[in-house]
Amino acid sequence: MTAFVLVSGGHTGGWVWRDVAAGLRESGAVAYPVTLTGMGDRRHLGGPDTDMDTHVEDLVQIVDHADEPEVVLVGHCYGSYPVLGAASRRPERVGRIVFVDAPLPRDGLSVLQQVREQMPDGPVRDRMLGQPARAEDGWRVPAPTEDEWREWGNPAGVPEGGVARLARLAAPQPVGTLTTPVRFSDVVDELPMTGVFCTDGGSMDIAGVEALVATGSPLFRQLAEPRWGFFELAAGHWPMLSTPGELVEILLRAAAGEGRRLGARA
Fold it and tell me: Quick one: pLDDT at residue 202?
């Protein structure tokens, strides 16, 4: 029986996975939708000291308390950072890591450090880097308004009323989760991984990854290894809300080892 640990993006919680979790369970899988400390209905547990290490520990505890010998860690957007941190601490319990419209974190960099190094100049980068300055009480980055979700969050395909619900349930993000570096060891370089690109308004697809690998950069060389598989999904940035059935199918296929392989590159 395959067990999925579902970790959502910033400002949200396990509630965004409701339909996906139900679909996985109907297929016979086990689903653990995660709400990280300070997020969702655990927002009251956050504080100035809540940081990346807190969220990594949240996931380690989920893995440790799961009955299944292995889990598939699924990280959406920001969730990919604590996912890799937890995988580094419990590699023997991780059968696969799935990145859903998420960056590939780098060891020793925080979310904002990676934005500063890798994101092209523009309003999205400026907004991300300006988050600490907007933090209320010095540590709570306000959740986006409904208009801001529509402008910055790429909710393409989310049903009527879904964006309003996203805004209503979104929580302030503890700024330490964005400024504290994530740490993971080389052990994660041996784990099977899958990338899922959401192509409706997204900035990356399989062809784009192939182009990155073809540059020969060591940063992207690993993506051509056989342990990596890739899928594309015609959805915006929130496929768990817009196309949950399709995402369930992709997650099940990923867990089974399916996905496009890029092949070796010189």
Answer: 87
Residues of the chain with pLDDT under 70: 264-266
Closest CA to 35 of 49, 48, 21, 24: 21
Structure tokens at 128: 């991300």
Four-CA torsion 196, 245, 84, 102, nearest 10 degrees: 40
Assess if residue 263 is contained within a domain. Answer: no
Q: Provide the CATH number for the domain around residue 219.
A: 3.40.50.1820
Looking at the domain assignment, is residue 147 inside a domain? Answer: yes
SS (H, E, C) 94-139: EEEEEEECCCCCCCCCCHHHHHHHHCCCCHHHHHHHCHHHHCECCC
The b-or-e profile of 124-140 (16+ CB within 10 A means b, else e) is: eeeebeebeeebeeebb
Query: Does a structural domain hold residue 266?
Result: no
> What is this structure's pTM?
0.96
Q: Please tell me the total number of residues recorded for the chain in this structure.
A: 266
The secondary structure of 46-90 as a DSSP string is: --TT--HHHHHHHHHHHHHH-SSS-EEEEEEGGGHHHHHHHHHH-
Structural domain for 235, as ranges? 3-256
Question: What mean pLDDT, rounded, does the chain reach?
Answer: 95
Q: Does residue 88 belong to any structural domain of this protein? A: yes
Rounded Cα–Cα distance for residues 102 and 117 (Å): 16
Overall number of domains in the chain: 1
